Amino acid sequence: MSPPASIRSATGLFSGVVLLTALVVGLSADGALSGNRGGFSPEIYVMNADGSGQANLTRNRAADDAPAWSRDGAKIALSSERDGNWEIYVMQADGTGPTRLTVNRSADDAFPDWSPDGTKIAFHTDRDGNYEIYVMNADGSGQANLTHEARTDDLGPAWSPDGTKIAFASEGDIYVMNADGSGQTRLTHANDFDVSPDWSPDGSKIAFVGGATDTGFIDVMNADGSGRRRLTNAGSDYFPDWSPDGTKIAYHTGRTGNFEIFVMNADGTAQTNLTRTPRSDDYEPAWSPDGTKIAFAGNLDTTAPLLALIARSPQRVLRQKGVIVSVLSNETCTLRALGTISVRGQRSKVRLRPASGRLGAPGRKKTLKLKLSSAGARQLTRLLAQGKRARATFSVRAVDRAGNARTERRTVAVGR
Questions:
Q1: Which end of the chain has less Cβ packing within 10 Å, N or C?
Q2: Could you give the CA distance from residue 410 to residue 311 in angstroms, rounded to a whole number?
Q3: pTM of the entire structure?
Q4: pLDDT band, residue 40 (cuts 50/70/90)
């Protein structure tokens, strides 16, 4: 699963997506993790509200993400890295006429959100050395800092439907302030890491992401911070966005092994996959004002899964009748292991029987056993009894849902 290019860190240094399901390994001293998650360049897509008619709007080699519709549905604001750093752009709803609104070579400006009257755009930026909530006119003029909190990171602004308030995330809690930056009030006080707020169309509720720095769930609360409820339980659910009629919430989730756009009823029922594209990571959904379309960021997954192998050394191959290895990955994938045992002074090797399996949710461990044949066990019993040294060499190949593959190889000492 490729991470959105906008992510900066779990403490909130990101542009579009707030959190990402992490590879939770906790490797022991004999574990190894390798790989590279580069080559990520998302585009802005649009689809019908039922998931049909998916179309690429940007077709830009640089990264584009965090789409936000103007309230008349005529334009889409977005974050783009086409100038070397993240800037705010606006384009027509069909992807034509992209116009750059911010110019900060040494800073990132991202996560735009239109005011209900269409005259202003809120966004977050680190141009002051930390992330602050800024607002500007819809043409990019009049950029002004609203939060003025030098020691914290304030992120992910969301206008209230009446345009009088802006919700945002700060240091793992949801805050709300007046549209001019005054009256900043903390709404959440839980131990969760709360980010990515979005108002219901009637202004009575706020959906947001709650969880830890490596997990995410869609929660909802009343606009005053009371009545918090959890709507999803996959642990990899992010970026909620209410439908204009308030009956549904779109979000993205990693529960399928890659990121997909899901939609559910406002009470959390009927969770449905809209994108169904296992070769792509799709995230950051945004409903059009008329509720007929959803814009989102999408990226073709061409990156092999990360893979970690954990195996004891030495292994008592005769007692356990083979070699045991535990495998972790950041993606759902199929596994196949091959291996042999070589004995010092012997030209022939003892072959291990192949092992295969399926690694489920990211961060979970799958244990594979490469078994000894009866003949191989007898041969090793004789040679190890003579005090000869032996070692097992094995490889594990992981193939993700998109067909990308990675192979890791390990060698461990073996004994009786």
A1: C
A2: 8
A3: 0.74
A4: low
Which amino acid does the sequence have at 188? T
Q: Which residues contact 207 (CB under 8 A, 6 or more apart)?
A: 197, 198, 200, 218, 219, 220, 231, 240, 241, 242, 249
Q: Strands 173-178, 280-287: parallel, antiparallel or unpaired by DSSP?
A: unpaired
Position 221, amino acid: M
Residue 22: predicted pLDDT? 29
Measure CA 70 to chain center: 25
Instruction: Specify which residues 180 forms β-bridges with.
Output: none
* Rounded-to-integer distance, Cα 253 and Cα 47, Å: 17
Give the separation between CA 353 and CA 321, rounded to whole angstroms. 11
The three-state secondary structure class of 144 is: strand
Residue type (1 letter), 328: L
Q: Tens digits of per-residue pLDDT, 53-86? A: 999 999 888 899 999 999 999 999 999 999 889 9
Rounded distance, CA 285 to CA 220, Å? 17
Q: Give the confidence band of 389 by pLDDT, cuts at 50, 70, 90.
A: very high
Q: Tokens 């779109």 label which residue?
A: 250
pLDDT band at residue 403 using 50, 70 and 90 as cut-offs: confident
Specify the residue for token string 């889409």.
76
In angstroms, rounded to a whole number, what is the distance separating the alpha carbons of residues 185 and 203?
Answer: 16
Phi/psi at 338 (5° precision): -130, 150
Cis peptide before 201 (omega within 30 of 0): no
